[in-house]
Structures are given as C-alpha cells and as structure tokens.
Amino acid sequence: MMKRKLIYLLPLLMLSSCSQPTYKTTSLPPEERAELLLKELTLEEKVSLMMDGAKPVERLGIKPYNWWNEALHGVARAGLATVFPQPIGMAASFSPEAVYGVFDAVSDEARAKNSYYASQGSYERYQGLTMWTPTVNIYRDPRWGRGIETYGEDPYLTSRMGVEVVKGLQGGNDGRYDKLHACAKHFAVHSGPEWNRHEFNAENIKPRDLYETYLPPFEALVKEGKVKEVMCAYNRFEGDPCCGSNRLLMQILRDEWGFDGIVLSDCGAIADFYNDRGHKTHPDAESASAAAVLSGTDLECGSSYKALVEAVKLGKIEEKAVDVAVKRLLTARFALGEMDEPDKVSWTKIPFSVVASAKHDSLALDIARKSMTLLMNKNDILPLKQGGLTVAVMGPNANDSVMQWGNYNGMPSHTVTILEGVRKALGADDKLIYEQGCGWVDRSLIQSAFNLCKSADGPGFSARYWNNVTREGEPVTTAQVATPFHFCTSGATVFAPGVNLTDFSATYNSVFTPEQSGEVVFEVYAYGSGRLRINGEEVKGFSNKHGGRKSTYNLRVQAGKPYNIELDFEYLRSDAQLNFDLGFRKEVDIKKSVAVVKDADVVIFVGGISPSLEGEEMGVNLPGFKKGDRTDIELPAVQREMIAALHRSGKKVIFVNCSGSPIGLEPETKECEAILQAWYPGQAGGTAVAEVLFGKYNPAGRLPVTFYRNVSQLPDFEDYDMSGRTYRYMTQEPLFPFGYGLSYTAFEYGQMVLDQNKINAGQTLELTVPVTNAGKRDGEEVVQVYLRKRDDTDGPNKTLRAFKRVNIPAGKTVNVDFELKDKELEWWDTATNTMRVCAGDYDIMVGGSSQTEDLLLYSFTIE
C-alpha cells in the first residue's frame, strides 16, 4: 500500500517545483485544471478515464477512481450504514424538509466512508463520491418493479422530493470542493417493463406527455437542484437508444436546460446498441461508443468505450469530441477534491463515527413515522387499547428485517422488525401470539432443520478460513458453527477471529441426516460468491456483486440417509455477508394457523410483498410476478385466503401492508378492520408501525401513488400514453386516491382566500386556507393544492401544484399560506407545444387528498 501511495505522490512532488501553473495548482478553478491535465493525456489514457472503473495514470499521479456508488435511501452496498425507508415511502411523508435531512445525513456517511476507504488505499466500487441517485422517473404504472425507487406518480411531488435529495446529497461547496455529486436517473421516458428494457422502444410519445409528465422532475433537478450528473436509460426513445438520443441529451438536456455536467450511461446500456439481445441499432462497439459520445454521453458504466481508441483511428469520431467528455469528467474529480491530498479537503474531516450513529438512527425513525399511511380505520379500532390485550401477529413480513431494507440498501447495525416493535409496545398485562401462517406467494413455509447437521467436530458445520480468495495455503483458522449462519463484516466484524475483513474465503462442511423424507430447501443469502455442493456435486452457484441476494436449492431427501454438505464462500467487495439455513418445506395450513390465534382479541397481519419479488430486472417468475415487475396487483392468493379465514372466524384483523407498490386491496377492505400502508420502512420500521398501531404516533402519511382496485383499471403496461393513468388522467374511481391518508384526529377546512381573482403572466397568486384540528389530539395535515384549466378537455383532471405538511394542535386553527408562481401556474400550450403560463380560466382546489369530495374549489383567471 505504501508503494502505491508513493507512485501517486511522486509526480506531485516533481510538479510542485515548477513555477508554471499545472493541473496540480489547487488555486485554479476545476475547469482550468481539467484543461491543463487534458493536454497531458494520450488518447488511450483519456479513454481509460471514461468508464466507471477509471484506471490510474501513474505517470501523472492520477489515482484510480470508481464512479459507481449508490445512496438510494442510505449509503448502499458498502456495509454498515443507516437504512432509511425506501424512496416511495419517503414520498408518502409529503415532507421535503424531512427528505433533505435524511440525505444530508447520508452525505455525511458517504464522505466518512470514502475517507476511510481512501486512507486504506482502496478505490473500489461503492466507495466513491459520485452517488447514482435519485430515481425521478414517473411511477406511471403500479406493475413496474422499480417504481419502489421513485417518489411516486406525480411530476410536482417527484420534483420537490428529488430536488431536496440532490441538495442534501451534494451539500454545497466548502469554498473549494464539492461534498458529493448526485445523479438524476433514468433519463427520461423510462418506467418499465423490466423484462424487455434492453430492447424496448418508447415511441409515439405525445409532446404534451413528454413535457408535462416525464420531463419535469429532471428539469427541476437540473435547474433548481444543480444536479451534477444525469444517467441515461436503457430503452429507446422514438427509435434511438436513450444514451444515444440527440433529442434527449443534446437538444433538451444541454441546449434547452443548459446542463453542463456529466451524462453517464446505465450499466451495459452502450452494449445494448449492438448486442443481439439489445436494440441492434449499431453494428459494433466502435460505432455504438462513437454515437453515444457524440450524443453527449460522457461516461460509460461498462467497457464498450474501450473501442473509442479504434473508433478514432477509423474516423468514426474525432479526438476533440472525446476531449469534451473527458474534460467534464476531470472537472468533476477536481471539484470533489478527489485528485488532491485529503488534508486539503474539509469534507474529509467528517468522522467515521457519524456512520449508523444514534443521531442518524433517530432520523430513520422520524422519516419512517412520517411515511406511515393509514388507509382504513373502521369504528376507530385504532389506536389499540393496551391492558389485558391479547394480540396475534401473523404474516410473511412480520419478522422479516431484510424486507424492511428495500433494495439498493446498506447494512444497518440493527433492524427493529414489526414483530419486535409490537412486542416492545405491549404492556405488562398484554399477551402476544406469533404465528407466521404463510409466505408471500408460496403455499409452503420453511421449518429449519439445521439441528440435524453434524460435522466431525460437533453439531453444525465445521468452518475453515483463508486470508485470500483462492484458498491458497493452510487455513488461518478453523471454527465450529452450531447455529444457522448470520455472518456480516459490517462494523468491522470478522467472520471468525484472525480472518480478514476483506480478501478472504471460507469452506463449511457438515453431514445432514434427515429424520423424515421430503423436500428440503437450502437458503443462502450472500453478498459475495460461492457454491453449494451436496455429496460432492455442485448444485448451486452464486456471485452477487451488487448487494446481498437470496439463492435457494430444493432437494428431495430420504429419512436416515446422510448427505454431505459443503458450502464455499469468497469475498467480492465492500462488506461481505453470508446467511445460511436449510429446512423442510411444510404446506401452509390455514385452518391450523387460525386455530393457533383463536384466543387473540385482535390479529395484526403483516403482509404484502417484498423487494425480493419486485425490483430491477429480477429472475422472479412466480404467479403475479415477471422479472421484478408484476402481472397482477392484488395481494397474493395465499394471503387473501388467510385473511378471509381469519375474518370468517370472527377475528378483528389489522392489516399492515408492506410493499413498494400499490396493492389491489379491495377484498381486504371488507375483511379487515384497519389497513396501514407501511411501505419498506427501513431499520426503524417496526418501531414506527407499533407507535402508530398503539397510538404513540398520529399518522399523517399520504399516498404518492394511486391504489387501483385491480388490473382492469390499468391501460396496457407498454403504452406510455398518459390517458387513463394516475390520478391526473384516471376517469374511474380508485380504491384509495393519490394524496389520501387518515389521521387519529379530524381536520376541517375554512374558506380559502385568494389575494386576487385575476392575474397576469409573471404575477404570483397568493392564497390562504384556514385549517382547524377539530379532534382531541394533535396531528399533522398535508394540505394539497391542485390546478385545472377549465377549457382544456385533453388535459389532466387536476394536477398537484403545491402542498405543505402542517402540525396543528387539537382544537386550534392554522392559516396555511401558498404562493403559486410561474412554475406552479404553467400549463400546456398547444399552439407552441411548450409548458408556459397560459391565459384562461382556472380552478384551484385545496384539501386533504386528490379526491374531488375532499377538495374546496375556487376559480381565477390569468389574463
């Protein structure tokens, strides 16, 4: 490591003795330094800097740099970190201020972790200063798996939340250096399907839909958030791959909006230009890479850009076009201080102790509370009354911490599951019964049989560890693992004494002798690589490079027959993780589970789905799911049947739904007494849920997406026309509307006051609405302002243009003020095909949800 550092420092010492300014002259602006360094580079060196894993240029003292880092809802895939709720849950808070606080904390953790890694001479993926978040695509269809990463279906809400994410992450400038760089993704008309995204063409997009729905969040992040990076999408837009779309990247992004930052490709998107399973719009890597750079894509996540050297030689692109992209990349690295000595950069002074700190834990709990969205509360059954209460907790998500982490996640120091949260909330006279009952989709559960494993050294598995990934030499230590594996190197916790935190491998051996015949499931959840062998035959391999992922293998076994089990594991990067268990699959017995909870006064059924079912281009093909997308939006059948059986038995069911997407809960509205939408609530989710259920916290979350009744209310998934989609264009009655959520108190709206009924373009419309808390407990109301142009029959029914989350004490009235400026008042102009302030008569609607009966309506005119 010392030798590597000297290699990078030697050119600095040589250059410091020169009187002429060089790219190492820190007093110069980043752009000038980039220009000076650019002149020193060969074409080959320039190209090597244009891929996410940028190579070092040792002769010039340029360190390696990996551009790929993630921070979707906390620093991701780099071990220990505070895990906040999934973005769709944070959107339900309708609190941009809280979202800013979350990402301000995330930026502190990211800087601290980067400083630590750099001090160790490590420049791996997920260790850098360029965070590829937020996702601000519009969640136009609830079947899209990656909708869980977004801030919902509304362009205005998404814009407001996305801007605060960027401001919190980027954190300003200390007078010389930027704190971090954020990235708006995926530009721009991109929201499923996942299964064909590498070849899908989003075509025939109406200009109105483009500028009114799909582009506004990106424009806001560029113009207001000053986001430093934009990631182009996998799919095509009007025939051209998004990462080669002159229309998107040059005309709109750079010319219309004035973006001068970095455009980077989604991972492998350039290869899609020419791959057989991709768009096949270009014949080879040289043509594809040249087209992408000429269209404005500066940085590739992938390796196709290696072909740029040959592309220049073939005349497909001039070197000066390459220079434009490389200068942007170098400017960003200088702006972050990544090219300079750490002690010169104030951000490196942020201590590692901020990571997963108590302060950040409290932020995770605060935003989880704010995200809780109460959808139904018959006869005010909630909050539950303690004292001699028998509570049954059931369902596949009740005791699942991994579900709560969402996707693109870090590793918290502790997760409060919903079961744990309920248990802690109960009083001394209360009783808890836990019965999982069923899984998400399968009609079977896994009952651990780890106790039937025995090695030569005792119960469980014998373990051998090497401090290399190839198992060279003798093991550095051996151990015995007597319980199901739960290994993770987060927080500098080694797998065993004497084993490295990084660059290690392990082999675990045992003999499993079943006492009964049947099907055994082997479950491996790993961040790393390895393989499972049974009786010497490899039956399952895994290599998870982007965070932990579960693998399973099913085996029919005979009672009394021994099975030799061997599990290999190798560290890949960041913090390693290995969970392992095996067990018999037992069929769900609904009648038996109902009998177990027969004495309960109330059943808290914690169901829904999981990030292992919905997400990015996954291998899931279960009933209702396809490649991470959903084909059906209803609750899986086995859960519906369990809830129905509980209802028939006379049980009062409180349904806690955990999902990142809208679920069609129409049957559950008849069979449950209350429904709480908990999203994927992060590390503190169990506490937040329990506080709502037992009345310690008054919920105020609001839906950032429409909850449809079923798929019959949805247009074709692959149709990007907004007609009939989301609350803005939907003509049918949804199950629960956008902006909807209940409280334990009641709010009443007084008469709204407009400062004027007629304004001119450029003027601000001011309005005030008095809101009274008419209940007996303090609460928060999300006051929402919608706009509609009266004579626009093709436009949205209504569209959100302002909102405030306001705390109102019991019995008090608060005057809530809004200012609607040009951006909030603009409308689609068919004459110019632009969004601008248009003359005409408008309705302005104010209330507690997008539902018409919840809104007060007033009119004004723009002259």
From TrEMBL:
What are the recorded Gene Ontology BP terms?
A: arabinan catabolic process; xylan catabolic process
InterPro entries on file:
BXL, Fn3-like, GH, Glyco_hydro_3_C, Glyco_hydro_3_C_sf, Glyco_hydro_3_N, Glyco_hydro_3_N_sf, Ig-like_fold
Q: Identify the stretch annotated as signal peptide in this record.
A: 1-24
Residue ranges of every copy of the PA14 domain listed in the record:
456-598
Name the SUPFAM superfamilies for this protein.
(Trans)glycosidases (SSF51445), Beta-D-glucan exohydrolase, C-terminal domain (SSF52279)
Listed GO molecular functions?
alpha-L-arabinofuranosidase activity; xylan 1,4-beta-xylosidase activity
* Keywords for this protein: Hydrolase, Signal
The portions of this protein that span the membrane are: none
Q: Does the keyword Ion transport apply?
A: no
Name the protein family. Answer: Belongs to the glycosyl hydrolase 3 family.
Which protein, by its recorded name, is this?
Answer: Glycosyl hydrolase family 3 protein
